TrEMBL record:
Coiled coil: none annotated. The lineage of its organism: Eukaryota, Viridiplantae, Streptophyta, Embryophyta, Tracheophyta. It comes from the Eukaryota. This is Thioredoxin domain-containing protein. Residues 10-67 form the Thioredoxin domain.
């Protein structure tokens, strides 16, 4: 089964999904994760369940380890 949680890997999809949901008046839930954080890893399956149950809500996930370079660069520009 395809995931209902959208994985965000850069600024472009973040901007796209946030704008799209905002324009539609859709609620947005963002889960920030890191592979070393067992609590955030444990929440992955729960987020999937919620996304299947509440299909009118946009669920996003952002892995901080994967985008930390981008965050650093964006913050200092």
């Amino acid at each position: 089964m395809k995931s209902k949680v959208v994985k965000i890997e850069s600024e472009e999809p973040w901007d796209f999904f946030i704008a799209q949901a905002t324009n539609k008046g859709c609620t947005i839930v963002v889960q920030f994760t890191a592979c070393w954080c067992m609590a955030s890893v444990a929440m992955n399956s729960f987020s999937e369940e919620l996304a299947l149950t509440y299909q009118d809500i946009l669920f996003l996930t952002v892995d901080l380890d994967e985008i930390k370079i981008y965050i650093f660069v964006a913050y200092y520009h």
